[in-house]
TrEMBL record:
Domain Protein kinase: residue ranges: 277-514
Transmembrane segments: none
Origin superkingdom: Eukaryota
Record keyword Transcription present: no
Skewed-composition ranges (Basic and acidic residues): 1-41
Name of the protein in question: Dual specificity protein kinase shkB
Ranges for region Disordered: 1-42, 154-184
Length: 514
């Protein structure tokens, strides 16, 4: 037992030695860490002391700056006070200058009275210029006489054309009917010539009255010579209108020279009524025609049957002319003209379309892209007609009922313009004002003023109808225009429906805007 105890102690001592070594190492590490922490703490304290000293120094500098700034502001206040005193002195000086200017103004008034006397002397020069204006009026009278001579020359041409027509009528089997037509045509032309003479006479009287008004204004307003310029511009505008009227009269005379025999040689569009098989399906009916679905040479077409109350013997020559024109027009956005009959009540055959724009507008509102697409298609068709030579072809009846539609890509539409031939014929035989009154331009009732700008006006009304979904009211177009929500279309429509034709854009310009 005694021998085991020393061994146990020895083993215990051996075990304690590593533990003591480990304890010593730990204490050494703790001592080193404590010294590092103490050194770091002292360094931090030194840093804080230096920062405190810097802050104290910065505070002192800031206080010095405040003192200097206060001193500077006080000096500025004194400077401003001195400036105010100086400005008061300057104001007193300006007051004295104003008194001197008042004295000068009084002197100027005296001089202006002398200038008035000089202006009265210059009025003599104005009278000389007025004499020049009187000479211009005489020149205009000379041009009017030349216009009358041209009208007399045209009457001679009409007599020659009448003689040619008489020789052609002798070769026709229906000589009596053709002679009556020639007499009616001649009477119509003479009436137009008389109307043109009356219009020329009225325009000359208006020009003379405008000159008298210009003279009166020049006498009343000293030195206002702008009235003379405006009067000259007005005279030039009237002369341009007279030249347009004379060209229109020459065009009518040239058209009258075309004989019926020459027209008969170009009836390539004539079809036999027996080739047309009308169905009971009616597409529409108006005051001058009914439109039905028909079959022609295996093709479904639209057949427009004209009423006999409109197609008179006098109108048949006009019908031939309009059908010849319709047969010449070919465009992807014009409803294709196929042909027409001549025996009995005429039937006009055209391409069969799915819907009309008016029917679509009655059931839905169009999107902006559809409005732009349909408007562009109609504008392309009108641009093609207006660029025909030698004279542009006018549609005269642009409306939603005459825009026909077929389904297009992306749920859209392909638009085509219809009634570009027969519409003109029917109205030549019935009414003076062409087209639907709701779409008609202000100058539509005056044949002398009709131009392609008339179709531009109707196109603007059509754009507004597509944009608002409302049928146009001719008396409230401006109020309906406020319902157009798209600014781009609103500006374009406003330009198109201007009452002054010269202020409207051409259809080519409209096409570029779309």
């Amino acid at each position: 037992m005694l021998s085991r105890e020393p061994s146990r102690r020895r083993m215990a001592d051996e075990r304690r030695e590593p533990e003591q070594q480990q304890r010593q190492e730990v204490e050494k590490e703790v001592t080193e860490i404590s010294e590092e922490k103490r050194g770091e703490t002292q360094r931090n304290i030194q840093i804080l002391r230096s920062e405190k000293a810097a802050l104290v120094q910065e505070k002192e500098e800031f206080q010095c700056q405040l003192c200097r700034q206060a001193t500077r502001q006080a000096a500025q206040g004194e400077t401003r006070a001195r400036d105010v005193e100086r400005k008061l002195l300057e104001a007193n000086g300006r007051a004295r200058v104003a008194e001197e200017e008042i004295a000068k103004l009084q002197e100027w008034l005296q001089k202006s009275e002398a200038g008035a006397r000089e202006r009265r002397e210059r009025s003599g020069e104005v009278e000389g210029r007025l004499a020049d204006m009187v000479e211009a009026v005489r020149e205009e009278e000379r041009r009017r006489r030349q216009a009358e001579e041209r009208v007399a020359d045209m009457e001679g041409r009409v007599r020659v054309s009448t003689e040619r027509q008489r020789r052609a009528e002798e070769r026709m089997t229906e000589a009596e009917n053709t002679r009556r037509q020639a007499e009616e045509r001649q009477g119509d032309f003479e009436r137009r010539v008389i109307e043109n003479e009356q219009i020329v006479y009225r325009r000359v009287q208006q020009a003379e009255q405008a000159h008298r008004e210009a003279l009166r204004r020049c006498q009343l307003a000293e030195g206002r010579l702008t009235e003379e310029t405006r009067a000259r511009i007005e005279c030039e505008r009237m002369m341009q209108q007279l030249e347009v009227q004379l060209r229109e009269a020459e065009r009518v005379a040239n058209n009258l020279e075309a004989s019926t025999a020459e027209q008969q040689d170009h009836l390539f569009w004539r079809v036999d009524r027996r080739e047309i098989h009308l169905s009971q399906q009616e597409l529409g009916r108006g005051g001058w025609a009914a439109v039905k679905v028909a079959e022609f040479r295996g093709l479904q077409v639209a057949a427009k049957c004209l009423h006999s109350v409109i197609i008179s013997e006098h109108n048949r020559r006009l019908f031939l002319r309009e059908m010849n024109m319709a047969a010449k027009l070919r465009h992807p956005h014009l409803v294709q003209f196929i042909g027409a009959t001549l025996e009995g009540e005429p039937i006009i055959l055209t391409e069969l379309m799915s819907n009309s724009l008016r029917d679509i507008l009655g059931t839905r509102h169009l999107k902006e892209q559809h409005i732009t697409t349909i408007g562009r298609h109609v504008a392309l068709a009108l641009n093609y007609m207006h660029q025909m030579s030698p004279d542009p072809v006018l549609h005269r009846d642009v409306s939603s009922a005459n825009v026909l539609l077929n389904p297009g890509p992306d749920d859209g539409w392909v638009a085509k313009l219809s009634d570009y031939g027969s519409a003109n014929f029917t109205r030549l035989g019935s009414t003076a004002g062409p087209g639907n009154p709701s779409y008609a331009a202000p100058e539509a009732a005056d044949p002398v003023r009709q131009s392609p700008k008339m179709d531009v006006f109707s196109f603007g009304v059509l754009l507004m109808e597509m944009s608002t979904g409302q049928f146009p009211n001719r008396n409230h177009l401006q109020s309906q225009l406020r319902g157009v929500s798209l600014p781009r279309l609103s500006r374009l429509i406003q330009q198109c429906i201007d009452d002054n034709p010269t202020s409207r854009p051409t259809i080519a310009v409209v096409l570029n805007e779309l």
